[in-house]
Amino acid sequence: MNRTVADRGSDALDGRTTRGSREYRAITVALFAAGLTTFVSMYSAQALLPALTETFGVAPAVAALAVSVTTGMVAIAIVPASVLSERFGRTRVMVTSAAVSSVLGILLPLSPNIGVLLVGRALQGVALAGIPAVAMAYLAEEIHSRDLGSAMGRYVAGTTIGGLVGRLVPSVVLDVASWRWAMEAASVLALVLAVLMTRTLPPSRNFRPQRVHPRIVVTNLLGHLRNPALATLFALGFLLMGGFVSAYNFLGFRLLDAPFSLPEGLVGLVFLMYLAGTYTSAAAGAAADRFGRPAVLLGAVVTMVLGLAITLAQLLPLVLLGMLLFTGGFFAAHSVASGWVGRLATEHRAEASSMYLFAYYLGSSVAGACAGVAYATGGWPATVAFIAVLLCVALMSASWLFGKSRRPDRIPAPAQ
């Protein structure tokens, strides 16, 4: 039977889905839900840390492990999860990841003590890794290159809303119920989103199973590191996420102190700034398809630098404006950089995407800890100085990519 390209929902030349088709809409809805369920699960415990401290009688640093063990295990498990997807398929790994992490989330509020809760959160981090490790590779294989930026932007937009909802839902429930019900509410929401993802995710058309062997995996990873453009994008993931997490970790302390002295309830609303990222991640992806990734990436990093500088002001509206620009710039840069990784890696895309995300979450852990030293030493100005160093290196890296794309020896585009 003859079918038009629109009916098939894919490009006649390479079998990949194009924007405007039914399959494209299904893929982007499924990946939007995937981003939501991942980040709701990952960050739902953050709003509950004071309640965990009080309930279990532990120090705040111990309670904070309910967040850090999850993100840490996501980083550790990302590369193995991507390897599994090379052998068993993208959709199978994502669906299994969503199912296992959701079931664990439902059971976590039953934890009798902090030790059991932390072990459960660590296991949930391992399970969650399968979605971010594979999502970018899946999109790069299934979406036509000219529409990949837009599709990637929608996925990243889902992660921004997930990060916001994952913090707000438990906070609201905690006002009227215990931390167990608050965590359960977030877990039920994550389960609903996982079901939505599973029911709408189209099967892979262009995936081809690969041999999985430790030597082959190491060779593939080293091959990606030998690509200067990919190595630069990995470094950007570390630098940008490190700076972003450092700023949000200590912004609340600044707003609680003089001269602002805001109540804690209002300080918690600062996470609504993530909505700026919801818009800019999608917009940057579409702009990258139209104007080119190097220019949009460079502009996003410059926006982050400008926003960070404005936060040094002593007027609250200017501080909030600065954080709005900083947040929007970060998610725009992340959207473009993550999509570019899948574009440049013509082979073993899952490993390339997982290396970017490994650097991304490693930056969150390492830079976030170092920023704590900076804040203890010199408050917000010292923290801004530390983040500025990270962003200056990121700016040089983005400038190199921009310059490379403008010269005759430009970064080679993969075959269509």
TrEMBL record:
<keyword id="KW-1133">Transmembrane helix</keyword>
<keyword id="KW-1003">Cell membrane</keyword>
<dbReference type="InterPro" id="IPR011701">
    <property type="entry name" value="MFS"/>
</dbReference>
<feature type="transmembrane region" description="Helical">
    <location>
        <begin position="319"/>
        <end position="342"/>
    </location>
</feature>
<keyword id="KW-0813">Transport</keyword>
<feature type="transmembrane region" description="Helical">
    <location>
        <begin position="93"/>
        <end position="110"/>
    </location>
</feature>
<feature type="transmembrane region" description="Helical">
    <location>
        <begin position="57"/>
        <end position="81"/>
    </location>
</feature>
<dbReference type="InterPro" id="IPR036259">
    <property type="entry name" value="MFS_trans_sf"/>
</dbReference>
<feature type="transmembrane region" description="Helical">
    <location>
        <begin position="354"/>
        <end position="376"/>
    </location>
</feature>
<feature type="transmembrane region" description="Helical">
    <location>
        <begin position="181"/>
        <end position="201"/>
    </location>
</feature>
<protein>
    <submittedName>
        <fullName>MFS transporter</fullName>
    </submittedName>
</protein>
<dbReference type="InterPro" id="IPR020846">
    <property type="entry name" value="MFS_dom"/>
</dbReference>
<feature type="transmembrane region" description="Helical">
    <location>
        <begin position="26"/>
        <end position="45"/>
    </location>
</feature>
<keyword id="KW-0472">Membrane</keyword>
<keyword id="KW-0812">Transmembrane</keyword>
<dbReference type="Pfam" id="PF07690">
    <property type="entry name" value="MFS_1"/>
</dbReference>
<feature type="transmembrane region" description="Helical">
    <location>
        <begin position="382"/>
        <end position="402"/>
    </location>
</feature>
<feature type="transmembrane region" description="Helical">
    <location>
        <begin position="295"/>
        <end position="313"/>
    </location>
</feature>
<feature type="transmembrane region" description="Helical">
    <location>
        <begin position="266"/>
        <end position="288"/>
    </location>
</feature>
<feature type="transmembrane region" description="Helical">
    <location>
        <begin position="229"/>
        <end position="251"/>
    </location>
</feature>
<comment type="similarity">
    <text>Belongs to the major facilitator superfamily.</text>
</comment>
<feature type="domain" description="Major facilitator superfamily (MFS) profile">
    <location>
        <begin position="23"/>
        <end position="406"/>
    </location>
</feature>
